């Protein structure tokens, strides 16, 4: 029975005669509101959409300024839920104009007969949750209040224009317009002197159009933005063919992509390409006129690494200089304060060329800030400009503005959303808020929303919400509410994701920085559309993880917890490995496993360039051993780090941790000598340990020849290599040297016991399995030898050892023995620093440029090694990163 019918018998307290009773109330009749209404109806819910505007369209209803278009290709910026709808509508251009998009939304509203459930011209004044009836009561400025079980905000992310924040606006005697609230009958600019304030997407789209009509246009620019030519025209044949070839596959690929547009993941990194190859890729992207293409298809590091990004940014700057004739104006239009893509870039038509027109003036507000608006125009520090019209293209109180500022929302116990969000938006999945039962946001803060193709994200959200409402109804539940644990976990995951991208390095509306006094933090989910979709699905698959469900006649259900505890990139890598469905490594045999590892390593990004890489032979415990030497680009001599690779004493060689050695060589400014020690089962215990010690001694004796600083020798190793490094320190202490200045142990094997909790908690599912460790131990060391400190250093004498830095990862079977070693060393009086890496797995630090979140850990390791070698803290060969803002959303 529809809930509306049940509710007509409910208590009078929830409604009066002028209360409309429905199952679901939705605010907003844009892309999101229309689709959700359609889905709700099909699912048998009664629903009403409350819309302030006089018609459907949402953002496309209000943003009617000349030049307004979408900047995701229309082929992708469309509904996909109904193949018949797709056939029934043909876009006329690659990027449709605002009128055409509005016509499309009207067409959709008519086709599914949606208007009859939309109350136009109706602004919501207040929304209050009633704990006694488990319903929302919505009051409006036009007609009946609404009592509903579920309340859905389909309010859009960029729909609350922000105030101009400039003194004197009221004094201006001319005309004032906001791009975000453009008059429906247009504005006559002919012969007028027009001022435009703001050079975001709205300004950049409208300025060339204004310049065609106005007598003179003066653009007041505070921050230059990156803009790329849209090359608008007919829909590109290539994408049309792709779509029409297999529509379902095309749409599905978009749904699982990172940005909601079907582009593959790039794997080639910038330093693998020559200048000519990079330029070729860039020119192709420039010619494509497609933001998603240029943001994702050049090289894999462009969106995650300051250096990889700077290459693109420089190429774009070159283009600006080519177009703009006056070098001073070109310089003023060239962005320098943020990485490309960290602030929303724009698609333009003739934007930069417009500044070559004689009727266009650019005012650089960084050099002459606006003092005030007067009766006749705008006064800066240096000049005054008399104008007839001022256009504010100054943007929006984005993401939270429309939800929070538009009307007070009070949740359980009268809790106000504004106060809960005072320090930044708190959400679970960007869909719900703890303490606000049955409140849903479509593309809310904490979801991919504005970092994605909105059409794809809207459909995913609307489907997820309506499917949940159906499931609740079927199970007899009437409320659904995020738990505090789940919400806090999501905030952590959001912050983890934000460290992956460069969005944290720009002051933008993504971070709330454009609104004075607004709490700052990266608001959209930066982890990608596909990963986000899989997380939402996982919440359901795990029995509504992180939600409390209640109903009058059913037992309460609360499956509390955090949906993502892994770092986002670790989750992706483990997901990909799981999809590969590999046989367990321990079933491959030693040679098979080595071959597999070699193949596996071929697919990883090449390590970064260092000053010099060389090969050589050194003397091991029982004959010569190969080594690989990584020398920094800076002039030597340098301290030497003797490095032992991972691989369970069985796999790997002196180059199998090549990206890690390169990265650490660059970060520490030290020479890394990676030793090809002997492996089991051909050479069992204590071959690897004795080789480790012998190699260290040989390197100490040949320090000068290798270009090292005498007396500054350190050891490092990962996994079984960490074991060898730890053992080497004990042997060097006991056998008369060499002197070791410090030890870096990354996820080391330190003991022969398998009964610590991490062995059971992380024994499967995190690549290094318990079974694989058993196999390594069996191949290397017989049970009788396993307590020997040369393989179980935790059982050795621990005092008098060099200072140590020990990194362990939360999701690693070896976690607890690494921690145990650190604690035991500290107890023995050895200076120890520990890094307990949250959300990481065994390979996080060595999968350089794959597990991007491993960077911070490697920075700390490098700093520790430099401290051990008595060097100043920073050896970075990289450009210092721009100032960082707080990455946490809220
Ligand atoms: O707003 P913005 P927008 N004095 O915030 C400046 C989407 N969109 O409406 O950068 C002087 O980007 C401000 O300067 P600064 C798209 O996602 C899409 O243009 O803060 N200047 C900035 O230059 C876009 O990103 C399309 O220093 C002031 C500008 O005003 C988002 O909407 C089209 C100022 C605001 O830029 C917002 O774009 C249009 C002040 N007091 C929009 N206050 C499509 O193509 C602000 N500024 C789909």
Briefly summarize what is shown.
By secondary structure, the chain is α/β, with parallel strands linked by helices. Strand 26 (708-718), helix 24 and strand 27 (742-746) form a beta-alpha-beta unit.
Structural overview:
The protein is α/β, with parallel strands linked by helices and 890 residues long. Helix content is 33%, strand content 18%. The chain has 28 helices and 29 strands. The strands form 6 sheets. Strands 1, 2, 3, 4, 5, 6, 17 and 18 form an 8-stranded mixed β-sheet that branches. Strands 22-23-25-24-26-27-28-29 form an 8-stranded mixed β-sheet, sandwiched between helices. A hairpin with a 4-residue loop joins strand 5 and strand 6. It is globular and about 90 Å long. The structure holds 3-acetylpyridine adenine dinucleotide. The site of 3-acetylpyridine adenine dinucleotide has 27 residues, from helix 6. The site of 3-acetylpyridine adenine dinucleotide (N01) has 27 residues, from helix 6.
């Amino acid at each position: 029975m529809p809930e509306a019918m049940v509710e007509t018998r409910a208590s009078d307290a929830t409604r009066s005669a002028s209360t409309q009773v429905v199952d679901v109330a939705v605010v907003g009749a844009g892309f999101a509101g229309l689709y959700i209404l359609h889905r709700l109806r099909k699912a048998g819910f009664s629903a009403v959409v409350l819309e302030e505007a006089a018609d459907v369209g949402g953002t496309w209803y209000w943003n009617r300024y000349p030049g307004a278009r979408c900047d995701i290709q229309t082929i992708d910026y469309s509904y996909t839920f109904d193949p018949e709808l797709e056939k029934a509508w043909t876009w006329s251009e690659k990027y449709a104009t605002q009128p055409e998009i509005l016509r499309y939304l009207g067409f959709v509203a008519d086709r599914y007969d949606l208007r009859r459930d939309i109350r136009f011209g109706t602004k919501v004044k207040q929304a209050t949750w009633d704990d006694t009836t488990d319903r929302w009561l919505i009051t409006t400025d036009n007609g009946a209040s609404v009592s509903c079980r579920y309340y859905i905000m389909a309010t859009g992310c960029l729909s609350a224009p922000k105030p101009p924040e400039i003194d004197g606006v009221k004094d201006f005697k001319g005309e004032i317009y906001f791009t975000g609230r453009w008059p429906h009958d247009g504005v006559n600019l002919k012969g007028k002197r027009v001022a435009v304030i703001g050079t975001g997407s709205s300004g950049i789209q409208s300025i060339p159009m204004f310049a065609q009509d106005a007598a003179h246009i003066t653009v007041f620019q505070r921050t230059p933005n990156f803009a790329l030519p849209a090359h608008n025209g007919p829909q590109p044949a290539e994408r049309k063919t792709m779509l029409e070839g297999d529509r379902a596959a095309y749409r599905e690929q978009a749904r699982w992509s990172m940005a909601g547009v079907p582009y593959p993941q790039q794997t080639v990194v910038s330093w693998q390409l020559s200048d000519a190859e990079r330029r070729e890729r860039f020119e192709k992207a420039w010619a494509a006129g497609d933001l998603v293409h240029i943001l994702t298809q050049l090289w894999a590091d462009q969106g995650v690494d300051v250096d990889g990004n700077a290459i693109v940014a420089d190429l774009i700057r070159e283009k600006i200089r080519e177009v703009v004739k006056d070098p001073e104006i070109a310089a003023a239009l060239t962005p320098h304060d943020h990485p490309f893509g960290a602030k929303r870039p724009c698609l333009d038509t003739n934007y930069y060329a417009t500044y070559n027109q004689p009727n266009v003036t650019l005012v650089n507000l960084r050099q002459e800030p606006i003092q005030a608006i007067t009766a006749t125009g705008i006064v800066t520090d240096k000049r005054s400009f008399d104008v007839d019209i001022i256009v504010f293209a100054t943007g929006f109180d984005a993401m939270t503005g429309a939800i929070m500022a538009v009307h007070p929302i009070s949740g359980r116990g009268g809790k106000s959303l504004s106060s809960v969000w005072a320090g930044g938006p708190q959400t679970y999945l960007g869909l719900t808020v703890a303490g606000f039962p049955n409140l849903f946001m479509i593309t809310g803060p904490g979801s991919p929303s504005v970092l994605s193709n909105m059409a794809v994200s809207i459909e995913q959200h609307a489907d997820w919400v309506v499917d949940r409402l159906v499931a609740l109804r079927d199970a007899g539940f009437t409320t659904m509410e995020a738990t505090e644990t789940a919400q806090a976990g999501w905030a952590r995951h959001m912050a983890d994701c934000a460290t992956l991208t460069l969005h944290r390095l720009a002051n933008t509306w993504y971070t709330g920085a454009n609104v004075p006094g607004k709490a700052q933090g990266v608001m959209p989910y930066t982890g990608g559309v596909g990963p986000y979709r899989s997380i939402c699905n996982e919440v359901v698959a795990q029995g509504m993880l992180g939600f409390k469900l209640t109903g009058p006649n059913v037992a309460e259900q609360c499956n509390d917890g955090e949906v993502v505890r892994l770092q986002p990139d670790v989750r992706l890598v483990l997901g990909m490995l799981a999809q590969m469905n590999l046989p367990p490594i321990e079933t491959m045999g030693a040679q098979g496993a080595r071959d597999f590892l070699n193949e596996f390593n071929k697919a990883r990004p090449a390590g970064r360039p260092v000053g010099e890489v060389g090969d050589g032979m050194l003397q091991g415990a029982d004959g010569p051993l190969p080594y690989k030497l990584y020398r920094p680009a800076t002039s030597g001599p340098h301290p030497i780090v003797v490095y032992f690779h991972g691989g369970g004493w069985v796999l790997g060689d002196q180059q199998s941790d090549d990206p890690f050695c390169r990265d650490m060589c660059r970060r520490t400014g030290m020479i890394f000598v990676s030793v090809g020690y002997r492996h089991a089962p051909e050479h069992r215990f204590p071959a690897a340990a004795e080789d480790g010690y012998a190699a260290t001694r040989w390197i100490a004796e040949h320090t000068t020849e290798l270009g090292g600083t005498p007396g500054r020798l350190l050891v490092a190793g990962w996994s079984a290599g960490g074991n060898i490094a730890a053992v080497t320190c004990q042997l060097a202490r006991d056998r008369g040297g060499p002197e070791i200045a410090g030890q870096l142990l990354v996820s080391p094997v330190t003991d022969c016991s398998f009964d610590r909790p991490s062995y059971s908690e992380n024994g499967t599912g995190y690549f290094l399995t318990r079974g694989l460790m058993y196999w390594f131990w069996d191949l290397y060391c017989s049970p009788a030898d396993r307590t020997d400190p040369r393989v179980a250093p935790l059982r050795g004498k621990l005092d008098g050892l060099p200072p140590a830095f020990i990194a362990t990862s939360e999701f690693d079977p070896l976690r607890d023995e690494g921690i145990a070693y650190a604690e035991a060393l500290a107890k023995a009086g050895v200076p120890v620093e520990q890094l307990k890496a949250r959300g990481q797995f065994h390979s996080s630090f060595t999968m350089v440029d794959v597990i991007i979140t491993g960077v911070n850990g490697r920075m700390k390791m490098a700093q520790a090694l430099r401290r051990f070698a008595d060097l100043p803290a920073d050896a970075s060969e990289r450009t210092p990163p721009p100032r960082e803002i707080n990455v946490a959303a809220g």
